[in-house]
Automatic annotation (TrEMBL):
Its cofactor is Fe(2+). It is an enzyme of class 3 (hydrolase). It comes from the Bacteria. Belongs to the polypeptide deformylase family. This is Peptide deformylase. Its EC number is 3.5.1.88. The gene is def. Keywords: Hydrolase, Iron, Metal-binding, Protein biosynthesis. Removes the formyl group from the N-terminal Met of newly synthesized proteins. Requires at least a dipeptide for an efficient rate of reaction. N-terminal L-methionine is a prerequisite for activity but the enzyme has broad specificity at other positions. It comes from Afipia broomeae ATCC 49717. The active site is at E137. It catalyses: N-terminal N-formyl-L-methionyl-[peptide] + H2O = N-terminal L-methionyl-[peptide] + formate. Fe cation binds at C94, H136, H140.
Length: 171
């Protein structure tokens, strides 16, 4: 397992649409392991492969609440099959947009289909934090960021702040 660099806004890779995982190989398993290590070290609860500069449809997630108890989950080629009309609001953050949090409204419940690391296709109903997190991470696979749900004014401020920080870091 290795820690990978998380790409940060305004990196244009974050806008790429990730490609499906064709086959679960040792490289895919190693990528998932690296993503877990990177996610836990950050710390975060979800990470899309594109956030470590790998444009594949792979997500790692761990929503465990208790310290020391881990519930790592891998979602390969995830897709949302259905969304509720009912909406919910959660304060979201993103490892690619560090130390910025904002309330985002999303469907309260979704049905998701994905493949696990064993190659088994699964369907699950998600609600609460799980629904929010899976939608947030699938958005990453489609080149969408949570700031895209904000008002133009807030989004422009965030983009300006991170673009300025990137220019300063490059000097």
């Amino acid at each position: 397992m290795a820690n990978r660099d998380i790409i940060i806004l305004p990196d244009k890779q974050l806008r790429l649409i990730s490609k499906p995982v064709e086959k679960i190989t040792p490289e895919i398993r190693a990528l998932a392991d690296d993503m877990f290590q990177t996610m836990y070290d950050a710390p975060g609860i979800g990470l899309a492969a594109i956030q470590v500069a790998v444009p594949l449809r792979l997500i790692t997630m761990d929503l465990s609440k208790k310290e020391g108890e881990k519930e790592p989950r891998v979602f390969i080629n995830p897709e949302i099959l259905a969304s509720s009309d009912e909406m919910s609001v959660y304060e979201e953050g993103c490892l690619s947009i560090p130390e910025y949090y904002e309330e985002v409204e999303r469907p309260a419940r979704v049905r998701v289909r994905f493949m696990d690391l064993e190659g088994v296709t699964r369907e699950e109903d998600a609600e609460g934090l799980y629904a929010t997190c899976i939608q947030h991470e699938i958005d990453h696979l489609n080149g969408v960021l949570f700031v895209d749900y904000l008002s133009k004014l807030k989004r422009d401020r965030v983009m300006k702040k991170f673009t300025k920080a990137a220019k300063l870091a490059a000097k």
